Amino acid sequence: MNHPDAYQGKRVVVLGLARSGFDVAKRFHERGAEVIVNDKKDREQCPEASELEALGICVVLGGHPDDLITPDTALVVKNPGIPYSAPPIVEALRLGIDVVTEIEVGYHLCKAPITGITGSNGKTTTTTWVGQMLEAAGLEPIVAGNIGTPFNSVAAELSEHQKVVLELSSFQLKGTQAFKPHVACLLNIAETHLDYHGSMEDYISSKAKLFANMTKDDIAVFNADDDVCRQLSAEVHASVWWFSSKQAVEVGAYLEPTFDQAEQANASGKDAEPYVMFKDEAGRIHRLLSVHEIGLPGRFNVDNALAAITIAVASGAEPEQLVPSLKSFKGVEHRLEYVRNWEGVRFFNNSKATNTIATQMALDAFPGNIILIAGGLDRGLDFKEFVPYFKERVKGLVALGETRHILESVALEAGLNHVKIVDNVDNAERAIEEAVQEARQMAVPGDIVLLSPACASWDMFPSYETRGRIFKEAVHSLK
Prior knowledge:
Blueprint: E1 11-15, H1 19-30, E2 34-39, H2 49-54, E3 58-61, E4 73-78, H3 87-94, E5 98-100, H4 102-109, E6 114-118, H5 123-136, E7 141-145, H6 151-155, E8 163-167, H7 170-174, E9 183-186, H8 194-197, H9 200-208, E10 219-223, H10 227-233, E11 239-243, E12 252-256, H11 259-267, E13 275-279, E14 285-290, H12 299-314, H13 323-328, E15 337-342, E16 345-349, H14 356-363, E17 370-374, H15 387-392, E18 394-399, H16 404-413, E19 418-421, H17 428-442, E20 448-451, H18 464-476
Parallel strand pairs: 1-2, 1-4, 2-3, 4-5, 6-8, 6-9, 7-8, 9-10, 10-11, 11-12, 16-20, 17-18, 17-20, 18-19
Antiparallel strand pairs: 12-13, 13-14, 15-16
Helix pairs in contact: 5-12, 17-18
């Protein structure tokens, strides 16, 4: 793809009329391109269509016409969620037409240094945390991307004196070409989104595109405790910084002592507590705070904190400036979000846990006595990895959605005594209400009720956000 100014008088097809598609269409129209916007949804589901048409932009709804992609099409900008098997994309690639996402468009318009964050788990929490840290450091960050605000919608207005922090999904990154951040981080890799990518190889290579154009003047941040991160770090041309909760690192954030070292010391009668450390490029070590002072619960949030520290320092902050944000940050909606204490039972909303690793990480955040509400879209997983958790941490399971009976069988195999199934798949709101009631009946004071589905929401809900909001409403309705 070229700079958007180069498409004056040329045909640009925008696939998907969501917020990002709406903004992309306007950007190219302002630059004199012949813009055609296409969405499979009907007009009633596309309220933005009328505004684009009032500007003179052609909007085609209700399906993909056979003649949508023509040999004179100069560019296709796709919504990240549209699969590459969709007929217009197949045809564009056959004709050798560039197919990109709005991240690539935004990159060509952006003058500000870019910090990009991706990974299978923890993206939104870490991105939000980095934004808060950079704000406290006076660096005027704008947070955008997969987190809610399309990059393209703010890119052109950013100055070279600002910072932009982007949450980036594999769907978005797969559709990039020249995109190059100054600071980039891969948090972790877990098996997910294979229904879109088709293989782990394609999923990992899409994530790796975040680093493809970086140079020695840029900084790549990797998780030293993740095998794929370590492998990819050897392939980048940027300076490599690290974060780790299991070992000291050459440059970046780590714990001293580690959790394992602290547990061994405490078992032998010594008083040991992990502290967050940062080692800079000059070899100076900064002792920041105890892990118990971090505002979010759970060891996986310690990893998110270590990642956020390393990214923020790489983006221009001083380590000591980050301590207040580390203490005060309380997380993001639907990500281990505390909802309510009802008669001594604490309820947490972790609806964003759309894969098994995310749910395991949430279960690790609590010592035990967990009533788990889980289940959703069936992607062919067997959930066997939950057996040790059902034996050691989970007191009861309430299963719903397409995977409810698979989860039930694994729980029974693990010897879990308290298992309930919600068979209502036609009324999503009622199903969540039933799940909350079942969990309430299992729980006693001191227990944790945790919604952490380990599955995508699309079997019953339009989004994980909707699922989480209904859960919170049901919890707040308890009497």
